[in-house]
Structure formats: structure tokens, C-alpha cells
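User: Modeling request: complex.
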Amino acid sequence: RKEVEQDPGPFNVPEGATVAFNCTYSNSASQSFFWYRQDCRKEPKLLMSVYSSGNEDGRFTAQLNRASQYISLLIRDSKLSDSATYLCVAASYNQGGKLIFGQGTELSVKP
Amino acid sequence: NAGVTQTPKFQVLKTGQSMTLQCAQDMNHEYMSWYRQDPGMGLRLIHYSVGAGITDQGEVPNGYNVSRSTTEDFPLRLLSAAPSQTSVYFCASSLADVSYNEQFFGPGTRLTVL
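Assistant: Request completed. Predicted assembly structure:
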């Protein structure tokens, strides 16, 4: 089992839709989490950090459920420009400098 | 600031050849790392460094060497290229505490080993 798992999708949604991705992690020592966005064949870029129960930034909301060991990303009012792959990342203090990436969830927003 | 730069952007090697992928950052970041990205696998950590003179292995270190003689540079060496090393390689850097700091990625090197 991978340490960080995501549904690879693709998620195909119409413009304006609300879409949610889940990410599960197996290392209970994981302390902080991130969502990165990766456009096709480009480098990943930070979308949001999640340290406590959740975080909100405009149309994007991330929630953390430590008891069930999952993180979710909710995108409201989807735009065409939201089409990308979303990477879930976990970090734990007992792994020093290591970040563990999920395989990514592909989102395609259609007109 | 140029951020994180990687060279070359593309490279084709023959099996058994060696080469060095270059990575440099101008943000005075202590932490630097190398990842490879394969279809359906996400990013996997190859090696990382928490400061000049300090390196450590990641998830998939076999076949790769690194060194960190300066804060700015973190080259990745392929000792004897194999087709299994065909991948996209990303270098990243951040402030020291990777658990709380944004990773800045370079544009990637697309490597094909024939």
C-alpha cells in the first residue's frame, strides 16, 4: 500500500461545478500536509498548506481528518483554468527531510 | 531571482552512459531535493540535502549520486544509465523545515535512456 494514496481520476466536470478530491495517508506520524497543483508537463506549484483541521483560500478549501487519516480538497465554482493534476503531500517529523507525494488526481473542467 | 534552475531540459542517453543533471537555486535555501516522476507514480524522492555538506537517501536512491558542496548547487549524477531511469527529474528547494515550508521546483529535466 502506498503511503499517500489518491484517486487518479480523471475527474471531468462542467464549468461552475463543485468537485472534491480525497487523499489518504498511512503514516499516523504525518504532521503537515500540502496540496500542489501541476499543469501538464510543468513543475508542481504549491496550492495550499494544511497544518490543523483545515484551510480555505478563495474557492479552495482543504480539510484534514486525523482520526480517519485523510485530507480533502474542495474546489467550488470550477474554472477552465483549474484543469490540472492535484498532488497530495504528507510530511512527518520522524522522517526528517522527506516529503511523500501521492500519485496525483487529474481534473478536467469542460465548458 | 531566477528561483530554481535545471539543466539540461531534455537529454537522451545510451545505456551505460553517465551524466550529471544540474540544479541551482538563488534563494539561499538550506533544503534541496531531487525527485523523479513517472506516469501513475507521482513524485518519488531520490536524494535530499538539509545543508551544504549533508546529503541523505530518499525513497529511490539506487543508481544516483549527489553532493552538496555549496548552498546553491545540488547536482544529480547518473552513474551508468539504464532504461528504467527514463523519467522526468525535478529538483526542489525550500527553507530548512520541510514540514512547514513551500517547495519551489525547477522546470524539470526530461531524460530518455535508450
